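Input/output pair, single chain:
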Amino acid sequence: MTIALVVHGHFYQPPRENPWTDLIDREPGAHPFHDWNERINAECYRPNAFARITDSRGRVERIVNNYARLSFNFGPTLLAWLERNAPDTYTRVLEADRESARLLSGHGNAIAQGFHHAILPLCNERDRRTQVRWGLTDFRLRFRREAESLWLPETACDDATLETLIEEGLRFVVLAPTQAGRVRPAGSSHWQAVSESTLNTTVPYKYFHRDGSGRSLAVFFYDGQLARGIAFENLLASSHALLSACERAAARPGAQIVSVATDGESYGHHFRWGDRCIAYALYTEAARRGFRVTNYGEFLDEHEPVFEVQIKQTTSSAVAHESSSNGDGAHASENGNGAHAAESRFAGTSWSCPHGVERWARDCGCHAGAPEGWNQRWRAPLRAALDLLRDDLAPKFESAAGELLRDPWEARDEYVELLVDRSKTREEFFSRHASRALTRDEEVRALSLLESQRAALTMYASCGWFFNDVSGIETLQTLRYAGRFIETAAELGLDPPRDAFLEQLSEAKSNISDNGSGADIFSRTVERSRVTPERVAAHVAICNLIETEGSSAVCESSGYAYRKRDLLVRRHGRVTLATARLSLEDTATGREREFALAALHFGDIDYYCALRPFEDAVEFEAASERLWSQLRTASLQDILSAARDEFGPTVFDVKALLPQGHGHLSRCVFGRITRRFREEYEHLYEEHRRVVERLQEIGFSPPPELRLAAEMTLSRRLEVELREQRRSGGDYRLAVEIARESARHGYRIDRTSVTSVFEETMTEAARLAVRHPARENIAACRALIALGHELGLEANLERAQETIYEAVRAGDALSDEMREFALALSLAPAALEAETVKTDARTVEPILDFGF
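Output:
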């Protein structure tokens, strides 16, 4: 009998954007990447979209899309980031769902997720329903179908949560085995209590709504031992070991399905090459072991549950005090050391807290490897402060929005459409929800009210409570959204209870005494994060002086669309002056602001911007003329003073630049400085090159200063030559000669920037060779390969591999020269056979597995 195998990956990152700009600030812990989303995409999300199956020599035989074999959910906020910043990964995720639906009787592998990853049993009824509805709407708009299920964040649930899923029309849910309370055969009156060790996870169950209507949904409990093996016990070291563990799980009499669920980041981020292990397991090894890789939806078509289940509402008073969570969001085992004497005060259970849902409500003892002596007593006052804020402002929102919208809460439930799909116009939204024809200002107010609720929902993302201290990066993000909620509510005249909120938050004490309380941390965090429209305007104006852009185009920056009008820029001596009108439109609410400004650059990093609200075109022209009249003769101090008088009183300097503008300044200022250094080093290198080389020939070693000059010069020349050949045809002989010269004299090439340029060049060369397989284009590719060997670069050539592989999949015939290039890229001969590549995964002959 063939056993169904479903491996579910929960792919999620918390919302990381600054709520004032909708952009992610640099996260130093993710170095060398800009932020954790970028890093984990490189280590996990993309590798699973383009997973490698290799042969015995490490050559790539197949490139597969793991999402087409995994059951999976992606957090909506993560999908939004991928759509903007990693479109190749995003596209493969959507394609995988379509492919799996085609292969599995219309059932795609993707399921939805609660939108902000809030702990649903801890939400009030209204927020729980909105989180579910936003998750389902986001799914429908992205995947172009209705979801059959919704991943419960942290699998946290209680009866009310499951009943919400039933009421929203969902078909099944996935839970941890420790969440089952008791079971019985359908139609029986006898319930039997179960535990993880006695629950049969190889069959589905049915959960009935308590209202007596007979409505239900199926419940799949994943295999806890398998999940722990993947998450914590290195089971991804070998696909043989993984499938052997699956076989042991399937050995139970009457087994129908082996179901396993873990954090998706296990496959590549937590465990390097986890993506390759699961690729081989699902595409090759599973069929050989007698498993049918499927998803829950297809399985249910043929296996109606014959058992009923009731879930636990809380955990036992004797549950372990210490969680064995690994601190990365992966599920924890359910047993630890020491007793936890108090009964749970919060309804609901989860997969990563043995105390139910208390990890997100109080100091239950669970932590992520916290230093000895630390506590998490800050969790309760943090949640109490947020609840106070939400509950105070909810009726004020309802009253204010009720003047404009037929049903404010229904409008909030559907507001997500405007966040996900830009094609959904505000006119369409207001045609459904406005209580009457609204003026432009009233539309802006209505959208601002809904934006305040978006911040209120986002501040409950679960990561704010998961880790060790109220000053942690995840909790700071929670506090930033609370700050945005307060600020927006205040601007709308809703009188947020800021003092009471801070008083409650002051009870959340940091384990680091210098950090103070949650109230102290909140004040510092909001002050650092808050971005006003005036600052955005100054940022745009200063960036325009650093790197000039046109004045007519509509551009976007930091959550605003902007347009410059009447822009005039001139330079006299070391002074550059610009005057302009700058129109800003909040992309979320449509609120418009217009500023009159003057921007000044006195050289180096002396940038200034004076601005004020624009009121009158005639007055703007007069102010501009008065300022321009002083450009040629006034001192720098007088020009700045005049700019303040004519366009102030607000004046910003270079500190007004937002994080995304730091790159502009760095390229401009540091670029000039480093160019001067490079020129000096190159001059030193050339002037003394002959003497140094002669001395080297007779055994002398050059001093560090001259060695540095040579290494910097040759590294730069190599990088420039690579870039030049990308533009002009691909003759890399000079680049090879530079590399050989460096090696001959024992100079070290700076491989960091060279490797990056090399990877980009190789990808472009491969694409050109596929589009135009002329002999010279292929020869350029081969020359690049030789150069990489010459330099000893550890370059990532995956995109070049994918280009050739996809060409073969499309049926392109490869010339002998192209085949040689493909083999040099470490593609295996089997990968270049079109029929092999096109063969469906379920009929591919097994290949060797070398422990990935």
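Residues 665-843 form one domain. The longest strand covers residues 560-572.
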